[in-house]
């Protein structure tokens, strides 16, 4: 029998559970472009109600959700303030600039992922024809697994409002942040005008994100979704997976955090592995660069997959498809590799 693979590359690799598949199979559906899919409508309204917004928009991906938010907040020649290593700036294909003529103004982040308030204020442009018009502050929570401090969110909100800026949250892993901070997700979302929620990472749905905001902003986002080719028809089967995830997969994120902390402790013991940190469901380690390829082969032979690129820093991500046995197997494989070649 083939060995089960322990896949720690990302929490995007999760597969729908049997119960989620059943929910998808029995979902009521309609044409969402006409606004007639009852399950899509229920998912959108549920998240809006839960997180304190007027409306929501179900879209195929987190990248599209963030893009629609930027297009809805900003016009051509506007700019948004964003972290230098934020997903919306660094890993989304430059979509705001390419499709919206919106200029990003990157700001160097602190170690905890926050954008220092003094740097935010210094980056805001004066009203002058020489400059792009600063319209929006975009934050990310979690950032590389780090939940932003709650007091920082309040302060960032107050700073943005003092300068008449809108606020957008890339909350791809918002529920990880809420679980880690032991607060309802609404307590984080309330500081923002729009929030993007990903259903296909730790929550385990196969696809989809929801953008939340006011009726006016979501109406704009719906039009931009169509322009970007994101209108879909009987999407209720996918929305049903998201509903199931919200019902059954939020509280269990604490299990992913616990397993990540345990794995970090086991890897800390190994000579040749430098533990850089563990935050929510992510573990960061540094290994000798010259051993990367050999380590990759060794782990694959043990039925373990991790993302190995050209950098010696590795990110290991726990999720609902990784159980306690998978964590033990991973720790044992690392121990065996460095014991034989140490």
Class of secondary structure makeup: alpha/beta
End-to-end separation in angstroms reads 32 Å
Oligomer: single chain
Radius of gyration: 21 Å
Largest sheet: 7 strands, mixed
Whole-number mean pLDDT: 96
Give the helix proportion (percent range). Answer: 40-55%
Strand content: 15-25%
Could you give the order of the helices and strands? EHHEHEHHEHEHEHHEEHHHEEHEEH
Number of strands: 12
Our count of helices gives 14
The shape is globular
List unreliable stretches of 5+ residues: none
Strand order of the largest sheet: 2-8-7-6-5-3-4
What does this structure look like?
The chain is globular. Helix 2 runs parallel beside helix 11. Strand 9 and strand 10 form a beta hairpin. By secondary structure, the protein is an alpha/beta fold.
Using brief descriptors, characterize the structure shown.
342 residues; alpha/beta; 7-stranded mixed beta sheet; 14 helices; 43% helix
Summarize the structure.
This protein has 342 residues and is of the alpha/beta class. The chain has helices at residues 18-25, 38-51, 62-73, 87-90, 95-100, 117-123, 150-162, 174-181, 185-189, 215-227, 236-248, 253-268, 292-301, 324-341; strands at residues 6-7, 55-59, 78-83, 103-107, 133-140, 166-171, 194-198, 209-213, 274-279, 282-286, 304-305, 313-317.
Q: What is this structure's SSE topology?
A:
Layout: E1 6-7, H1 18-25, H2 38-51, E2 55-59, H3 62-73, E3 78-83, H4 87-90, H5 95-100, E4 103-107, H6 117-123, E5 133-140, H7 150-162, E6 166-171, H8 174-181, H9 185-189, E7 194-198, E8 209-213, H10 215-227, H11 236-248, H12 253-268, E9 274-279, E10 282-286, H13 292-301, E11 304-305, E12 313-317, H14 324-341
Parallel strand pairs: 1-11, 3-4, 3-5, 5-6, 6-7
Antiparallel strand pairs: 2-8, 7-8, 9-10, 10-12
Helix pairs in contact: 1-11, 2-11, 3-10, 12-14
């Amino acid at each position: 029998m083939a060995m089960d693979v322990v896949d720690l590359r990302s929490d995007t690799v999760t597969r729908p559970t049997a119960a989620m598949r059943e929910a998808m199979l029995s979902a009521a559906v309609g044409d969402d472009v006409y606004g007639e899919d009852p399950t899509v409508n229920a998912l959108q309204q549920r998240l809006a109600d839960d997180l304190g917004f007027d409306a929501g928009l179900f879209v195929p991906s987190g990248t599209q959700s963030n893009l629609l938010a930027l297009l809805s907040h900003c016009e051509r020649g506007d700019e948004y303030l964003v972290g230098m290593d934020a997903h919306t700036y660094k890993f989304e294909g430059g979509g705001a600039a390419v499709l919206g003529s919106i200029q990003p103004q990157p700001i160097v982040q602190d170690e905890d992922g926050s954008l220092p308030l003094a740097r935010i204020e210094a980056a805001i442009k004066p009203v002058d024809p020489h400059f792009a018009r600063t319209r929006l502050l975009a934050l990310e929570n979690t950032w590389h697994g780090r939940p932003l401090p709650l007091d920082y969110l309040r302060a960032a909100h107050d700073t943005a409002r003092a300068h008449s800026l809108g606020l957008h949250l890339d909350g791809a892993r918002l529920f990880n942040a809420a679980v880690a901070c032991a607060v309802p997700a609404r307590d984080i979302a309330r500081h923002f005008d729009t929030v993007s929620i990903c259903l296909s990472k730790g929550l385990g749905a196969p696809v989809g994100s929801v953008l939340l905001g006011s009726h006016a902003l979501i109406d704009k986002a719906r039009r931009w979704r169509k322009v970007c080719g994101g209108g879909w028809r009987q999407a209720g089967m996918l929305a049903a997976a998201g509903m199931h995830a919200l019902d059954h997969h939020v509280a269990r994120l604490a299990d992913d955090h616990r397993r990540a902390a345990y794995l970090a402790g086991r890897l800390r013991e190994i000579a040749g592995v430098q533990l850089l940190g563990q935050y929510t469901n992510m573990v960061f380690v540094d290994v000798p660069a010259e051993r990367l390829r050999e380590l990759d082969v060794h782990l694959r032979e043990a039925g373990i997959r991790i993302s190995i690129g050209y950098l010696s820093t590795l990110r290991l991500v726990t999720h609902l498809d990784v159980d306690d046995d998978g964590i033990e197997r991973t720790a044992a494989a690392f121990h065996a590799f460095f014991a034989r070649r140490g």
